[in-house]
Amino acid sequence: MDAEAKNTEGTPEGTPEAWRDIIPDAARRLMTAAVHAFAERGYHATTTRDIAGRAGMSPAALYIHYKTKEELLYQISKVGHRSALDILEEARDAAGTPAERLADAVRSFVRWHAEHHTTARVVQYEIGALAEDHYAEITAMRRASEGAVRAIVEDGVKAGDFDVPDARGTTVAVLSLCIDVARWFNPRGRSTPDEVGSLYAGLALRMVGAG
Amino acid sequence: MDAEAKNTEGTPEGTPEAWRDIIPDAARRLMTAAVHAFAERGYHATTTRDIAGRAGMSPAALYIHYKTKEELLYQISKVGHRSALDILEEARDAAGTPAERLADAVRSFVRWHAEHHTTARVVQYEIGALAEDHYAEITAMRRASEGAVRAIVEDGVKAGDFDVPDARGTTVAVLSLCIDVARWFNPRGRSTPDEVGSLYAGLALRMVGAG
Question: Any idea where the HTH tetR-type domain is (chains A, B) (predicted)?
């Protein structure tokens, strides 16, 4: 936490890869503007006018793409959680030993939370502002993410490679460790996303009693 | 994360023990009201009028105790971080082996973040809204917390009880794991604060290669 700086205002970060699919360009620009506005002031303190202004658009132009501020938060959450789920399912389905797959999952998941820490904070901390149906959909994606990691953990136990007294609790802990990187990670700090990813992959293997 | 529910609105939680020292009673009531308001809508979307109203007081009465909204956030952060630091320094200075002291630190720190998850979220997520001098003071307390845990880790390495390739990174990870409990913990969920604390104490010992 030594690495912390007052960077909740959202240090510039690249557009998450998954967002490249969002068309038209104006819709993507609005999502980026919304992420930064939400990260800086919080969801409830942000108006659609703020978001449109940041994107260099009029409020009327915003409404063509998103009917409400909540719709923007929902899209940000959905795309963010989709990326997370893709990373974890890819690791689950990869070739390799359970230890290799767990290390791979943690490394990629940490890297995502470090590189896209502003987006990740919005996705993680503003979840309570979603409408009930959207909240239910996002919660289902979170359960699927947890399921992907738990499948790797259980494969390791079955193979006799891992020693895990509580597979559910340990899976929650491994994911939680990765997610919290978004809170403390500082791109001007001591460690790169890759370095944190490698350290955490090793720690996760210890947590499951591998080797 | 299965344990998650839409509980960012701040499920009622007891007043943190450290707050009992805050006098007069009106000042403590305002702090409690502020924690719940900040947790529900975020710092920037909350007005001092909202906080006074929740505490059943007039805005003028609020100003007797706190000159600004930021002053309230600062007091909440200071008392919260003071509690965290006390817990960790007590564990550092206790009798016992490094493994016992680390397990003790993690168990108490997790329990605090689970029991006071609403306060902990405000303390952890709104830190960027503090004024520069207050931010610096809180950051120093965070560094001291990290130092307390790192001292236990280094004692364990020196004693030959722990095997830790990166003491700084591993200390950050252990603290991060505990802090993130405040994000996902749900008092209506599957595990009690004590159960999470025990599980996490065991995981932390694995992370430092104890035993």
Answer: 24-84
Residue A25's pLDDT is 86
**CB within 8 Å: A209 and B206:** yes
Asked whether the beta carbons of residue A3 and residue B176 sit closer than 8 angstroms, the reply is no
B/e letters for B75-93, b = 16+ CB within 10 Å, e = fewer, are bbbbbbbebbbbbbbebbe
- Chain CA centroid to CA B77, Å: 9
Query: How far is the alpha carbon of B180 from chain A, nearest alpha carbon, in Å?
Result: 6
Return d(Cα B31, Cα B26) in angstroms, integer: 9
Q: Which residue of A has its CA nearest to B126?
A: A8
> Which residues of chain A are under the pLDDT cut of 70?
1-18
| Amino acid letter, A41 | R
Task: Give dist(CA A60, CA A202) in Å, integer.
Answer: 50
Tell me the fold of B17-207: Tetracycline Repressor; domain 2 (1.10.357)
Inter-chain touch A183–B196, beta carbons under 8 Å: no
Per-residue model confidence (pLDDT) at position A19: 72
Residues of B in contact with A44 (CB under 8 A): 41-42, 44-45
DSSP label of A209: T
CA–CA gap between residue A156 and residue A154 (Å, rounded): 5
Distance CA A29, CA A174 (A): 33
Q: Do B169 and A125 touch (CB under 8 A)?
A: no
Across the interface, of B44, B168, B175, the residue whose CB is closest to A41 is: B44
pLDDT at A21: 72
The full set of domain ranges for chain A reads: 68-207
Q: What confidence score (pLDDT) does residue B8 get?
A: 39
Q: Binning pLDDT at 50, 70 and 90, where does residue B19 land?
A: confident
Token pair of B142 as six digits: 């965070």
Mutate which: A102, A149, A168, A172, vs B, most B CBs within 10 A = A172
Fold exhibited by the domain A68-207: Tetracycline Repressor; domain 2 (1.10.357)
Q: Render pLDDT for A57-90 as a digit per residue (tens, 0 to 9).
A: 999 999 999 999 999 999 999 999 999 999 999 9
Single-letter amino acid code for the residue at B202: G
Quote the minimal CA–CA distance from A192 to chain B in Å: 12
Q: Which of A125, A169, A206 is facing B125, going by the closest CB pair?
A: A125
